[in-house]
Amino acid sequence: MPLRELCLADDVIEGEAYQAVIEGHEPFAVFKVDDEIFVMHDTCNHSGASLALEGHVEGRNVVCGWHDATFDLETGAAVSGPCTGPMRVYPVTIEGGRILIEI
Questions:
Q1: What is the pTM (predicted TM-score) of this model?
Q2: Domain 3-102 is classified in which CATH homologous superfamily?
Q3: Calpha distance 37→61 (Å, rounded)
Q4: Structural domain boundaries of the chain?
Q5: Regarding beta strands 17-20 and 3-8, do their DSSP bridges make them parallel or antiparallel, or are they unpaired?
Q6: If the chain, 103 residues long, is cut into consecutive pieces of 10 residues, what is the mean pLDDT of each piece?
Q7: Predicted local distance difference test score (pLDDT) of residue 96
Q8: What ranges make up the beta strands (E) of the chain?
């Protein structure tokens, strides 16, 4: 599958989340922690909240702002409930200051 541009690396602020959209796909949550970029599906699998807009970063995890479901940014694994399982994560490639993912 070809890589698709998600956003610019400069759009993502350290320790915060950024919501990015590729036409025809549900939103993605983009995170920058310790100068590393992580991308996961944006909609919490427990409540449907946006992890980018409603959640917050704690260490290398994202915590949903609605019910505190917590996910590992690197693996998408559920760290604490009330989650229904892992979140989908996407491998990241950075080229020329652009964040690219395979979808």
A1: 0.93
A2: Rieske [2Fe-2S] iron-sulphur domain (2.102.10.10)
A3: 12
A4: 3-102
A5: unpaired
A6: 92 96 95 97 91 96 93 96 89 97 91
A7: 97
A8: 3-8, 17-20, 28-33, 36-41, 56-58, 61-63, 70-72, 78-80, 89-90, 92-95, 98-102
